[in-house]
Design a protein that fits this description.
Helix content is about 40%, strand content about 10%. It is of the alpha/beta class. The protein has a single domain, classed as Uracil-DNA glycosylase-like domain (Uracil-DNA Glycosylase, subunit E), CATH 3.40.470.10.
Length: about 230
């Protein structure tokens, strides 16, 4: 039996070893660990997207965190950014629970899919341009497989730029000049509406640059755009 497109994509993502620097880094982190997670069995591989295959909203981050998704195997799971993000998803009705700590914690998403531009944890949280471009076909395939997605919620400028690159590669109508990123920014590109949001990193949440109310408002806006598109 031929696997469905999302299952085939997940298989190809998890098996990928295309970027030697990222392979070495993600596996080093998984071996050496950190003291607070020394007893954990790290995932240490590329991280596929997850959520509702019939989602109208795609939430897109930068890349897995070294001791978050690179440890747990699920995006924004097991780190502070995820704590902030999934609590908002729960408050706005996209998630069945406010926490995401492991791949088997019972979390389910309704109307929403979570992914990232790059699938491996990068050193310094900074993929190189070549590593970004090497991973881009996975996002193109993901957008094709998620046929109900109407809204792409980009968490940060890197995800915003990666989304536009993927849409251009897939033949969608990307506006010129390129729309600029900002919190709450919106741009129509082909069949999608691109929505910007500050990344829920501790740098943003601890300083108040991104508050719970701000994030909730973006998710509520994504719901409206998804329903009306």
């Amino acid at each position: 039996m031929t696997p469905d497109p999302l299952s085939a994509l997940e298989h190809d993502i998890v098996a990928c070893r295309a970027c030697p620097r990222l392979v070495a880094w993600r596996e080093l982190v998984a071996r050496e660990k950190v003291a607070r997670f020394r007893d954990d069995d790290y995932w240490g591989r590329p991280v596929p997207g997850f959520g509702d295959p019939g989602a109208s909203v795609l939430v897109l981050g930068l890349a897995p965190a070294a001791h978050g998704a690179n440890r747990t195997g699920r995006n924004f799971t097991g780190d502070r950014s995820g704590d902030f993000l999934y609590a908002s998803m729960f408050r706005t009705g996209f998630a069945n629970q406010p926490t995401s700590v492991s791949r088997d914690d019972g979390l389910t998403l309704d109307g929403l899919w979570v992914s990232a531009v790059n699938r491996c944890a990068p050193p310094g949280n900074k993929p190189s341009p070549a590593e970004r471009d090497s991973c881009l076909p996975f996002l193109v395939r993901e957008l094709e497989a998620l046929g109900s997605v109407k809204v792409i919620l980009a968490l940060g400028a890197f995800a915003w730029d990666g989304t536009l690159r993927a849409l251009r590669a897939s033949g969608e109508g990307v506006p010129t000049p390129k729309p600029g990123f900002g919190h709450g920014a919106e741009a129509v590109a082909g069949r999608f509406t691109l929505l910007g949001c500050f990344h829920p990193s501790q740098q943003n949440t601890f300083t108040g640059k991104l508050t719970e109310a701000m994030l909730d408002a973006v998710f509520e806006r994504a719901r409206v755009l998804g329903a009306n598109a």
